[in-house]
Specification:
32% of the residues lie in helices and 27% in strands. It is built from 16 helices and 27 strands. The two termini are 38 Å apart. Helix 4 packs across helix 5. By secondary structure, it is α/β, with parallel strands linked by helices. The strands form seven sheets. A seven-stranded mixed β-sheet has the order 15-13-16-18-27-26-25. Strands 2-9-1-10-11-12 form a six-stranded parallel β-sheet, sandwiched between helices. Strands 3-6-7-8 form a four-stranded mixed β-sheet. The radius of gyration is 23 Å and the shape is globular.
Length: 503
């Protein structure tokens, strides 16, 4: 196999494209295939920094981990980061290049990026045996087809075979798969080679007559029925994995190692980014992580976390309007733990000067940390490492705010601690096992909880197990022979046209 490729499209957002792409990558990697993930254009507030300082979507970083390769900007050449007011920051090849409205992007800029996107894909295909591409939303968004560079526009430009994923758990999967195909032009349909049904619960034999009828209607086979599995979501792009006031899906069900559980309340600020930071806390036995938007829920928690955001000043205003700012100030006065990460760290400081993100000028922070923040036009993208709380720690930074730390009881990564309030710009630091355990011991002591971190929890090992389960899902429930043929040979000739086609 040399330079083969496949595009995984979906009938809707969250149909399972990211999971299926990661699963195919892990399945191929276990076969000894040098494989890479690719997503031409990603809209997400969950991003990651590569070793060479490029910003890409976290889903592509996790898919690279599934493929057992180092993530690079080639794997996600265009990243859109929503910032409110119908605009997004455009990150091109890992670096921010400006802000654009949705209308301005789709009116011409997107089409001009097609050459960049296909060049990146061609380079990955040159250096890898296979590239598994992920689409975005649905390929049947007929209002946007003229400017599409991530679904059928990419497939046509690079002659990629396409597999469409439908989520049966939502209902209407047959109509979704048929309708998606029937709304594509004849030229686009010629590349749609089959379907995958995702998140199926029950007896698959009851589904088989429908699968055969779908094949009769479209001339295309269903290449697998993937069963519903809990806890298989990888780092997501543009939405919480849970509703507010719901527990994080991956929260460990194991009993606490000590006598007490530790309750963590994460504040779901507007334009929340990299909320995946708390996944490592949820992986700890006895740590219960919930997203909470009420002051009384913060008062009841052992640790309150204020995560990152693409709108620090807007989020600060939201905290005050909801009474959450007062709840955080009360926690600090009572010596109860608070952790601010990136934008959350900035909000805990004394003052914010912002002529870049919100252009609000000088705004008072919550005054819980001796920190003043000035927003710079240049974005900090870094992969720092060091030692904190007596343990080695690594992280990554993605922010425009430059923090001036003027004191505190002790340094904390690039930030500080004052009393029971901690703040840092570093994302991902809690994935360092020894550091996470040391931090949780400090939190438990301040909260008066007899909580003891388990001595053997490895977040990296848990991630690997999760990625292996995705590979198992493909290997055990998909027609892997058919997938290999598509990757190596492309879409078969003579696939029938399903009317009416694109309007």
């Amino acid at each position: 196999m040399t330079g083969g490729a496949l595009l995984v499209a979906g009938t809707t957002s969250d149909a399972g494209k990211s999971v299926v792409t990661a699963g195919i990558c892990r399945w191929l990697a276990r076969r000894g295939v040098k494989v890479a993930p690719f997503k031409a254009q990603n809209m997400s507030l969950n991003s990651f920094v590569t070793r060479d300082g490029a910003e890409i979507g976290r889903a592509q970083a996790m898919q690279a981990a599934a493929a057992r390769v180092e993530p690079t900007a080639l794997m996600n050449p265009v990243l859109l980061k929503p910032g409110g007011d119908r605009t997004s920051q455009v990150v091109l090849l890992g670096k921010p290049v400006g802000e654009l409205s949705a209308r301005g992007y789709h009116a011409g800029r997107q089409e001009r990026l097609l050459g960049t996107v296909t060049d990146c894909l061609a380079e990955l295909r040159r250096t890898h045996d296979a590239v598994i591409c992920e689409g975005a939303g649905s390929p049947a968004e007929i209002n946007l087809r003229h400017s599409d560079i991530v679904n059928m526009g990419l497939a046509r430009a690079a002659r990629l075979p396409v597999v469409v994923v439908g989520d049966i758990d939502r209902g209407g999967v047959f109509a979704s798969l048929f309708g998606t195909t029937a709304l594509l032009s004849a030229e686009d349909q010629a590349l749609v080679a089959g379907y995958l049904v995702n998140r199926f619960r029950g007896d698959v034999t009851l589904l088989e007559p429908g699968l055969e009828m779908l094949r009769g209607l479209t001339g295309r086979p269903v290449l697998g029925v993937l069963p519903y599995r809990h806890g298989l979501g990888i780092d997501e792009e543009d939405g919480l994995r849970v509703s507010l006031r719901g527990a994080v899906r991956e929260s460990a069900v194991a009993p606490p190692h000590g006598r007490d559980v530790l309750r963590v309340a994460v504040v779901p600020v507007p334009l929340m980014s990299n909320f995946t930071d708390v996944d490592a806390l949820a992986a700890e036995p006895g740590v219960v992580v919930r997203f909470c938007d009420r002051p009384e829920e913060l008062a009841d928690a052992d640790l309150a976390v204020v995560p990152g955001t693409r709108g620090t000043v807007k989020a600060l205003r939201w905290l005050r309007e909801r009474g959450l700012a007062d709840a955080l100030v009360r926690r600090a006065a009572e010596g109860r733990p608070v952790l601010g990460i990136c934008g959350g760290f900035q909000m805990l400081g004394e003052r914010i000067e912002d002529e870049v993100e919100s252009r609000a000028g000088t705004v008072d922070g919550l005054g819980l940390l001796p920190v003043r923040v000035r927003f710079s036009p240049e974005k900090t993208l870094a992969r720092p490492s060091g030692e904190a709380l007596g343990e080695p720690v690594e992280g990554y930074e993605i922010h425009h705010g430059v923090a001036e730390v003027a004191g505190g009881d002790e340094p904390f990564l690039d930030g500080c601690r004052t009393g029971s309030v901690w703040g840092t710009h570093w994302h991902g630091s809690l994935e360092s096992d020894g550091f996470r355990r040391a931090f949780l011991r400090r939190v438990a002591a301040d909260a008066g909880r007899a909580f003891v971190p388990a001595p053997d929890t490895s977040f990296a090992a848990l991630r690997e197990e999760q990625l292996d389960r995705l590979g198992d899902l493909i290997e055990e429930h998909a027609d892997t022979g058919a997938l290999l043929r598509l990757i190596e040979d492309g879409a078969p000739e003579g696939l029938p046209f399903v009317p009416p086609g694109a309007p």
